[in-house]
């Protein structure tokens, strides 16, 4: 039996073939990125590159797809890779366990990706990924902040220029604007105000200044919305 039978029934055979021939890069495999990657895999995307240098921690279990008691301490990229290949053993999968920096990012983006999914939650590498992805001419969808929010009805998809309320989007508009980047790619964001009590100073993690409380369902919603952008764009 064809495991993609229901997908083909909805999108039609020719569009399913487009997905099977597509190569998508997903960077950041936390609460948002892992869900985006899985939905892309389940939709029939034929080739994926997944990138993350982090390991699964106990505090990930409230929201992250790969986070279980049994997977604590394991690399996120390895756990997700095993899961994706269990969904589709024919998936052409490239798993990269590293935090990508400037030189490596340019090297990775040299591949002919059909789409790039930015699910990075650290500012500097996020800015770098967005900038270099657009410089390479790849299509891009980027996640804004899902933390500190509870209302799923406030989640939207829009061009970067139309993002609003989200503090992360505000900072990105300012920083990317210095490079002349003000529009031209979709973002998933929420118009809900951040619950200020959910933010505390971050200690012991050099790449993060703030720890933000997060509910179980918000990152998956962001990830699923991102996957929908990619899939609908790829099939035209």
Instruction: Give the CA-CA distance, first to last residue.
Output: 27 Å
Poorly predicted runs = none
CATH topology group: Rossmann fold
Helix content: 25-40%
CATH architecture: 3-Layer(aba) Sandwich
- Tell me the CATH superfamily: NAD(P)-binding Rossmann-like Domain
Structural class, from secondary structure content? alpha/beta
Q: Give the percentage of residues in beta strands.
A: 15-25%
Characterise the protein shown here.
- The chain is α/β, with parallel strands linked by helices and 236 residues long.
- It has a single domain (5-235), classed as NAD(P)-binding Rossmann-like Domain (Rossmann fold), CATH 3.40.50.
- The protein is 37% helix and 17% strand.
- The chain has helices spanning 5-11, 13-20, 33-43, 76-87, 102-108, 123-136, 167-177, 218-235, and strands at residues 23-27, 47-51, 92-96, 115-118, 140-143, 155-159, 186-190, 199-201, 210-212.
- The chain has a 7-stranded mixed beta sheet, sandwiched between helices. Strands 8-9 form a two-stranded antiparallel sheet.
- A hairpin with an 8-residue loop joins strand 8 (199-201) and strand 9.
- Helix 1 (5-11) packs across helix 2 (13-20), helix 3 (33-43) packs parallel to helix 4 (76-87) and helix 3 packs parallel to helix 8 (218-235).
- It is globular, with a radius of gyration of 17 Å.
- The protein starts with a helix and ends with a helix.
- The mean pLDDT is 96.
């Amino acid at each position: 039996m064809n495991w993609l039978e229901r997908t083909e029934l909805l999108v039609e055979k020719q569009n399913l073939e487009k997905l099977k021939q597509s190569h998508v890069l997903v960077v950041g495999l936390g609460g948002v990125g892992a869900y985006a990657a899985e939905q892309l895999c389940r939709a029939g995307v034929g080739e994926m590159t997944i990138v993350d240098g982090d390991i699964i921690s106990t505090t990930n279990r409230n929201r992250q797809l790969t986070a279980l008691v049994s997977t604590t301490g394991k690399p996120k990229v390895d756990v997700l890779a095993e899961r994706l290949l269990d969904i589709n053993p024919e998936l052409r999968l490239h798993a990269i366990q590293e935090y990508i920096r400037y030189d490596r990012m340019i090297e990775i983006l040299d591949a002919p990706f059909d789409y790039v999914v930015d699910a990075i939650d650290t500012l500097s590498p996020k800015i770098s990924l967005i900038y270099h992805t657009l410089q390479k001419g790849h299509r891009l969808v980027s996640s804004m902040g899902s933390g500190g929010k509870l209302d799923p009805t406030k989640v939207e998809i829009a061009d970067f220029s139309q993002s609003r309320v989200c503090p992360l989007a505000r900072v990105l508009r300012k920083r990317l604007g210095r490079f002349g980047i003000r529009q031209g790619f979709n973002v998933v964001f929420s118009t809900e105000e951040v619950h200020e009590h959910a933010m505390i100073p971050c200690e012991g993690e050099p790449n993060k200044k703030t720890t933000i409380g997060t509910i179980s369902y918000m990152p998956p919603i962001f990830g699923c919305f991102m996957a929908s952008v990619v899939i609908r764009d790829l099939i035209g």
